[in-house]
Amino acid sequence: MSAFHVIDGSVAQDVIGSAPSDILDIVRETYLQHSHGATVNPNSYFLRFPHDPGARIIALPAHLGGDAPVSGLKWIASYPQNVDQNLPRASAVLLLNDAATGYPFACLEASGISAARTAASAALAVETLADGDGPKTVLFVGAGVIARTVSDFLAARTTEVRECLVHDHVDAYAETFAAYTADTHGWQARAVDRIDEALAAADLIVLATTAPEPWLTDRHTLRPGQLVLNLSLRDIHPTVMIKCHNVLDDLDHCLTARTSPHLTELEYGTRDFIDGTLADVLRGDVTLAHDRPTVFSPFGLGVLDLAVGHHIYRTALRTGRATEIPGFFPELKRW
Q: Which pTM value belongs to this model?
């Protein structure tokens, strides 16, 4: 191992967009590997700033075993004020390390990777947890990059969406996103102001906000059979969580950092409200009834970024789209 490659965001996006079903299958397999103990996924590390409490940079180290072992680190910044300058809120890079030597061998632009692995886990949850033959009415709460990418993955897996409702605290964002899903996926889409009625009408609710505290409370109506994708993790109040079936991606990770599942554990002093992980359901170890709403809360595992990034690296290398940096490790010239 001596070469070091850089893979830019356009290449990563092209690999993801050309075969989103491959990304979803990779995420599914990685969840199963993680549940079998074939991964190392430590806690995320947060760099915060006293002068700017809304901003943070997060390190997600991980190792993936199996037939193609690899280690790595995603370093992702979240600066909400960026949107005021017409910049994306999130930016990220992913470093890949050789599992045998520890040498890094690639650096990938990773904001698209991060969105794709989140969206793929959301689409996988829909396929695994949704009632009947899938959702017909979908409500997106939050109309940013994550919501758009989730819509792309749902459409790629031929989800039969008849109506798409979009709510955002900025009306223009909701209208733009509704137009995107109509133009790109052919959905009947519209922005909605009245969140209560939209929540009651939807079969699938996608929570993709930047809310720091729960806002979905007992005054809102959820019904049996609904599936709620709690992607932003902090939207749902414990008094709602406790009445739902709850599926996580990883218990220890989700029950930290004042997420909705964590707040529910603190409020009620138990983990009994958790039915299991998505891998438990995929393996058939947990079966859910549809007598209550079901909430899927994915903390976002670094090992998913690693698996998707490694796939993109290998595809880019095979197709000649990875940029080599000659002499990146000068000491290797002596060997």
A: 0.94
Compute, in degrees rounded to 10, the torsion defined by CA atoms 201, 151, 148, 237.
40
Cβ atoms of 82 and 60 within 8 Å: the answer is no
d(CA 177, CA 159): 18
DSSP state of 247: E
Q: How confident is the model at residue 334 (pLDDT cuts 50, 70, 90)?
A: low
pLDDT band at residue 1 under the 50/70/90 scheme: low
- Looking only at Cα atoms, what is the longest distance across the chain? 69
The encoded tokens of residue 22 equal 């491959």
Structure tokens, 4: 């070091």
Burial of 46 (0-12, 13-18, 19+ CB in 10 A): exposed
Q: If 0-12 CB within 10 Å is exposed, 13-18 middle and 19+ buried, where does residue 43 land?
A: middle
Report the half-sphere exposure of 5 (CA within 13 A, side-chain side): 20
Q: What gap in Å lies between CA 41 and CA 34, rounded to an integer?
A: 8
Q: Give the rounded distance of the alpha carbon of 112 from its chain centre.
A: 11
At 311, list the tokens. 């796939």
| pLDDT given at position 214 | 96
In single-letter form, the type of residue at position 26 comes to I
pLDDT in tens, 226-242: 999 999 999 999 999 99
